[in-house]
């Protein structure tokens, strides 16, 4: 990417794993006083990828690089950005490790939650892929004016609203049993304490109990009959919910179903499930390599976003304003 668009040779570096599975990084040219850009795409072995990145950044720092910018099109562990029962906010930990290693700036794309930027104490540029996906809709879907933008759960309704308003289209939201992403597993908290605590709460005081959630049967808010349905989200990893959403939309009269997302993780059997499903096309960007998945499933299409990353690198290196890359992007986008 860097070599083609920016006319810059790729830096000479050797990254390998020793027999004991330790990662070793050897930088084979001088980086003293240079602006270093470390580009790291996430592979299937995400933990090794993070260690490679940290070791390389630290190696550049100890070799007196002027600045070290990390270019991570997909930020790892971004889904683990909320506190769960007896869990931890892992994306905060990853952010802290990157800052500690010596990163001075981060370029990433479509963070799972925009608030992740606040986990860093360095500047973060959270670029957006939506302009590329919107362009794809306008150029590659001939009768897109007869489309409706669909959120497969109320959680992604904001993203769907952003797409719908920009394309001047309607919106539909699927709500009900199929939406099971944020469910809290039953754990020991519901079991009574073994020892009766005395003096903690006054006998006359009783803390009100929160009524447990119960999902209604599947409902589609909005009309999809005789329309093209375009399901939008930020990450496609486990495709079960997308397949279920496509079935629901087909039953309600949608005649063509597209799925659009920024990050195509497409883990394990995802390509096979997509191929066998009611989905007509899955459109993702190349923030994560997915050549193998495309061979398994011809329904997967790729939108190239390397242009915006290389422009971000060029502007940061030249000290130019980044606001050009964020034109017409609001707080909710």
Automatic annotation (TrEMBL):
InterPro entries: Pribosyltran_N, PRTase-like, PRTase_dom, Rib-P_diPkinase. GO terms for biological process: 5-phosphoribose 1-diphosphate biosynthetic process; purine nucleotide biosynthetic process. GO terms for cellular component: cytoplasm; ribose phosphate diphosphokinase complex. One of its GO terms (molecular function) is ribose phosphate diphosphokinase activity. Gene3D superfamilies: 3.40.50.2020. The keyword Acetylation applies. The keyword Zinc does not apply. It comes from the Eukaryota. Keywords: Acetylation, Nucleotide biosynthesis, Phosphoprotein. Residues 5-102 form the Ribose-phosphate pyrophosphokinase N-terminal domain. Binds to PRPS1 and PRPS2. Seems to play a negative regulatory role in 5-phosphoribose 1-diphosphate synthesis. Belongs to the ribose-phosphate pyrophosphokinase family. This is Phosphoribosyl pyrophosphate synthase-associated protein 2. It comes from Astatotilapia calliptera (Eastern happy).
């Amino acid at each position: 990417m860097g070599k083609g668009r920016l006319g810059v040779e790729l830096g000479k570096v050797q990254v390998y794993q020793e027999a004991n599975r330790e990662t070793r990084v050897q930088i084979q040219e001088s980086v003293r006083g240079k602006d270093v850009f470390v580009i790291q795409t996430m592979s299937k072995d995400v933990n090794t990828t993070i260690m490679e990145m940290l070791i390389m950044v630290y190696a550049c720092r100890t070799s007196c690089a002027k600045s070290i910018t990390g270019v991570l099109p997909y930020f790892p562990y971004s889904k683990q950005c909320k506190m769960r029962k007896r869990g931890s906010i892992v994306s905060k930990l990853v952010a802290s490790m990157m800052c500690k290693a010596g990163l001075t700036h981060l370029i990433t794309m479509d963070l799972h939650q925009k608030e992740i930027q606040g986990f860093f104490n360095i500047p973060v540029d959270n670029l957006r892929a939506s302009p590329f996906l919107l362009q794809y809709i306008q150029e590659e879907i001939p009768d897109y004016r007869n489309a409706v933008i669909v959120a497969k759960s109320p959680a992604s309704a904001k993203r769907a609203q952003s797409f719908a308003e920009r394309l001047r289209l309607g919106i539909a939201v699927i709500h009900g049993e199929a939406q099971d992403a944020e469910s809290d597993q039953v754990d020991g908290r519901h079991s009574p304490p073994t020892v009766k605590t005395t003096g903690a709460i006054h006998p006359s005081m009783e803390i009100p109990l929160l009524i447990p959630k119960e999902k209604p049967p599947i409902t589609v808010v909005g009309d999809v009959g005789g329309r093209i349905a375009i399901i939008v989200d930020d990450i496609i990893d486990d495709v079960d919910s997308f397949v279920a959403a496509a079935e629901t939309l087909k039953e309600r009269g949608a005649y063509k179903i597209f799925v659009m997302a920024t990050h195509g993780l497409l883990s394990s059997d995802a390509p096979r499930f997509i191929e066998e499903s009611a989905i007509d096309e899955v459109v993702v960007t190349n923030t994560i390599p997915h050549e193998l998945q495309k061979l398994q499933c011809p329904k997967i299409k790729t939108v190239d976003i390397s242009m915006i990353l290389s422009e971000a690198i060029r502007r940061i290196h030249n000290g130019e304003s980044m606001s050009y890359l964020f034109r017409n992007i609001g707080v909710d986008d």
